[in-house]
Amino acid sequence: MNPPALIRGYEVVIGLETHAQLSTASKIFSGASTAFGAAPNTQACAVDLALPGTLPVMNRAAVERAIRFGLAVGAKVAPVSVFARKNYFYPDLPKGYQISQYETPVVQGGSVSFLLADGEKTLRKTVQLTRAHLEEDAGKSLHEDYAGQTGIDLNRAGTPLLEIVTEPDMRSSAEAVEYARALHALVMWLGICDGNMQEGSFRCDANVSVRRPGAPFGTRREIKNLNSFRFMQQAIDYEIQWQIDQLEDGLAIQQATVLFNPDTGETRAMRTKEDAHDYRYFPDPDLPPLVIAPAWVEQVRASLPELPAAMAQRFQDVDGLPAYDAAMMTQSLPLARVYEAARDGCKQPKLVANWLMGEVSKRLNAEGKGIEASPVGAATLAALIGRIADGTISHNAARQVFDALWSGEAASVDALIEAKGLKQMSDSGALEAIIDAVLADNQKSVDEYRAGKDKAFNALVGQVMKASKGKANPGQVNALLKARLG
């Protein structure tokens, strides 16, 4: 990859910390429900509220999801890890501390790779992970509905999180966003997190600093709780410019936690950034070390689905897809399954990928839907592509059929082709008659083509297509025209 682009003579350094809410039915240390949307404080039990005499009990399903993640990113799954108390005092933290992991996390190392546009090329970028550790979420402070007061909802208190921390490997907001997208897709692929950013299931904190090339790392500021990829890019870009402005004015950057305001597009300091010693970490006396036996790790490994990178490589090797197409077809497991089903139905892998990346993706994005909600299923898409491949209809006619299918017309692909009169004209005799008439009426274009002007040939093709009312098979038209003009 090319050296990172400088911004106003500065190199950008970014690391991300991502909180992925684990897809367990109950909380990490209690049996309370993790379901979203319940009335405030109806899903906080005695353990979550830290009532005297209560003790935490580890949720095995949360540990298993951490193991799945560690194996998927090629990390070390620690045979023994330790829970610690992270002490701080917020109204929504009833214990006065958060149970997390500090010195010995459950997942150590690993990496996440993704494709990144670099000029006209698409390159693979790999971000190294420092760690991923298990912890409990805090509650939520509610300010909007209380004039001059703050409400506390402890439903989220104790919700299981996997905090995934990168090395400072990213050098632009675009890299940070593509990493976050790849991580988001991976945790959903593994089934360990539902990825719902609006509900807070996947939240990113971005540590941003700038430096002159070759200089030591600058002082970082942490942008908290970015819950959309668009906001992440806007927040990082604003923060980069703000830090450079400060340095250019001769001012020092102070380590701080900042918030992004999407209405103004600006970041603002929330508090001076704490260091680890400010939290007075110490091992939680109520929780023994977490011991993960090798047999458990192997059991989880055996249950893993085929991972996106391996599946993308298979699509290249077996289906002949370009690397970019293969990566796009493995953006999510549901999309990959639709691709495989449609490919098997029509034996046209490249055409299937083109349609999924083109018409299908365009419609889904416009309507804010996922592939699971597509009104055109894999079997129907395969039938449509099959009719393009066998020459029954042109690509333009296929788009008309697709429009009808998307809008809910219940007829089959073949019935729609028949009803709309979209079959291509493939009868050689009829086509030759049309071509002869076009050549007779367009002697000037014929002469120009024979004089070496290739554009004249395209004009003749256009005239034939017009005369056939778009029903002529373009490939056949090209071949017959060249034969006639030869």
Low-confidence stretches: none
The overall pLDDT, averaged over residues, is 92
Largest sheet, in brief, is: 10 strands, mixed
Domain tally: 3
> How many DSSP helices?
15
Shape: elongated
Structural class assignment: alpha+beta
Topology record:
Blueprint: E1 11-21, H1 60-72, E2 76-77, E3 80-81, E4 84-87, E5 97-100, E6 107-108, E7 111-118, E8 121-136, E9 140-142, E10 151-153, E11 160-166, H2 173-189, E12 202-211, E13 221-226, H3 229-248, E14 256-261, E15 266-272, E16 282-283, E17 290-291, H4 294-303, H5 308-319, H6 323-329, H7 333-346, H8 349-367, H9 378-389, H10 395-406, H11 413-419, H12 428-441, H13 443-450, H14 454-467, H15 474-485
Parallel strand pairs: 13-14
Antiparallel strand pairs: 1-11, 1-12, 2-6, 3-17, 4-5, 4-16, 6-8, 7-8, 8-11, 9-10, 12-13, 14-15
Q: What does this 3D model show about the protein?
A:
The protein is of the alpha+beta class and 486 residues long. It has three domains: 11-297, no CATH class; 307-419, no CATH class; 428-485, Arc Repressor Mutant, subunit A, CATH 1.10.10. Helix content is 39%, strand content 20%. The protein contains 15 helices and 17 strands. It has helices at residues 60-72, 173-189, 229-248, 294-303, 308-319, 323-329, 333-346, 349-367, 378-389, 395-406, 413-419, 428-441, 443-450, 454-467, 474-485, and strands at residues 11-21, 76-77, 80-81, 84-87, 97-100, 107-108, 111-118, 121-136, 140-142, 151-153, 160-166, 202-211, 221-226, 256-261, 266-272, 282-283, 290-291. Strands 1, 2, 6, 7, 8, 11, 12, 13, 14 and 15 form a ten-stranded mixed beta sheet that branches. It has a three-stranded antiparallel beta sheet with strand order 5-4-16, with no helix packed on it. Helix 2 runs antiparallel to helix 3 (229-248), helix 12 packs across helix 15 (474-485) and helix 13 (443-450) runs antiparallel to helix 14 (454-467). The longest helix is centred in the middle third of the chain and has 20 residues, at 229-248. It is elongated, with a radius of gyration of 29 Å. The model has no long low-confidence stretch (mean pLDDT 92).
